[in-house]
Write a structure and sequence with these properties.
The protein is α+β, with helices and mostly antiparallel strands and about 375 residues long. It is about 40% helix and about 25% strand. It has helices spanning about 40-65, 70-115, 120-165, 170-195, 235-245, 270, and strands spanning about 1-10, 15-20, 25, 30-35, 200, 205-210, 215-220, 225, 250-265, 280-285, 285-300, 305, 310-320, 330-335, 350-355, 355-365, 365-370. The strands form 3 sheets. Strands 1, 3, 6, 8, 9, 10, 11, 12, 13 and 14 form a 10-stranded antiparallel sheet that branches. It has a 4-stranded antiparallel sheet with strand order 5-4-2-7, with no helix packed on it. The longest helix has about 50 residues, at about 70-115. The two termini are about 35 Å apart.
């Protein structure tokens, strides 16, 4: 089995516009494999970007309600109102002072002329002039105060208008900022959708399966691995046949062929004797003269039961590879589960046990002599 296998799919469904690799091609991580027609996704992105631009413009308008020219105009209006008020106050004060001087002069004449002869024509005329000027003084004072009040109101109105027009309203600002955030999220999602129309290799390896040609529709679903053999990323034999080049569950299947893992089922009695890192020797039915050493990588903790036969999958690491190796080749493993030094190995059939005594037949001086022995390690074929 290859060291790893990855089912590769587009994230979303669509129509294939191009396929850039073929079965058997070697690919590297990040390499472009295929593309979908991005027309729909590009249109959605353009719309999202337009909405974002509109939201940003609205936020800017909320943050700065008036242009610099408009603010300057309002400031000029306030200055003009203030100047008009100042001029009005000065004018009213001047009129009031003139009226007071006139009334004072009239009073002086009345005092002089009427002091001489109260019944004289001059006294009568002086009193009439004083009365007229006093009336004028009173009317000018009322009119002047009205003009001052009006000017003051105009200053207040201009000042309030400037403050209101240039004030940033918190609620409006918060709403505009929320609109920008929402529009930005839509742009990000649309950009992701566009990027997902390009399929890139999630891992390096060899393309072993490809389903689809430009113009065909493909389903989305993302990339994923097949069921894995114990302790590795290699496909489990039971899933390998379902995930191979004839029946892949992905738009494309990529195998990591930089190294191989041998995966095989062991009966429960043999599996019980196996442990990680035990040495093994691999032979291959299709390559008679090839033997590769290796070791036990991992033993599945769960059993596989077929027709009431209990097996356990075991993964083996090959210490080297060979260009003749192919996925799915039949491999045989001889595992060293125990080792004894300075011992004699004999076929199991040569060992006899009777009445608690174990013997082997030894040829001595041309005679077969039963010889008692002490056995050590007992295997399937040799002791």
């Amino acid at each position: 089995m290859p060291a790893g296998r990855m089912n590769v799919n587009f994230r979303a469904a669509g129509t294939l516009s191009e396929v850039d690799v073929r079965v058997g091609d070697t690919v590297k991580t990040g390499q472009v494999l295929a593309r979908l027609d991005p027309t729909t996704q590009q249109a959605a992105l353009s719309q999202a970007q337009a909405s974002l631009a509109s939201a940003q413009a609205n936020l800017k308008a909320t943050q700065t309600p008036l242009t610099a020219a408009q603010v300057t105009q309002l400031q000029h209006q306030l200055s003009a109102a203030q100047q008009n008020y100042n001029d009005t106050v000065a004018s009213v004060n001047a009129t009031n002072q003139a009226d007071a001087a006139t009334v004072a002069n009239d009073q002086s004449k009345v005092n002089t002329d009427c002091g001489i002869d109260p019944s004289s024509l001059a006294c009568t005329q002086d009193r009439t002039q004083l009365s007229n000027d006093q009336s004028k003084q009173h009317m000018d004072a009322i009119s002047g105060q009205s003009r001052i009040n009006s000017g003051s109101q105009q200053v207040t109105s201009s000042r309030d208008n400037l403050a209101v027009q240039t004030q940033v309203k918190p609620n409006a600002l918060a709403s505009a900022q929320a609109q920008v955030s929402s529009a930005q999220a839509q742009v990000t999602a649309a950009q992701l959708a566009v990027s997902q129309t390009t399929l890139t290799a999630p891992t390096s390896g060899v393309v072993i399966s490809l389903s689809g040609v430009p113009g065909e529709s493909v389903a989305g679903g993302g990339s994923g691995a097949t069921a894995q053999a114990p302790g590795s990323l290699a496909p489990e034999p039971s899933s390998s046949s379902a995930s191979g080049s004839g029946g892949s569950s992905g738009f494309m299947v990529i195998d990591d062929t930089s190294s191989y893992v041998a995966v095989m089922a062991f009966p429960e009695t043999d599996a019980a004797q196996l442990a990680a890192n035990q040495a093994a020797s691999m032979t291959f039915d299709a390559i008679p003269n090839l033997t590769i050493s290796g070791h036990v990588l991992s033993i599945s903790p769960s059993a596989t039961v077929v027709s009431n036969v209990v097996d356990y999958y075991v993964s083996f690491v090959l210490n080297r590879t060979d260009p003749r190796l192919r996925e799915g080749m039949t491999a045989n493993a001889a595992v060293t589960v125990a080792q004894a030094d300075n011992a004699v190995r004999v076929p199991n059939a040569a060992v006899q046990t009777q009445a608690g005594t174990t013997t082997v037949t030894v040829l001595t001086n041309g005679q077969q002599v039963p010889t008692e022995v002490v056995t050590g390690i007992v295997g399937d074929t040799y002791t």
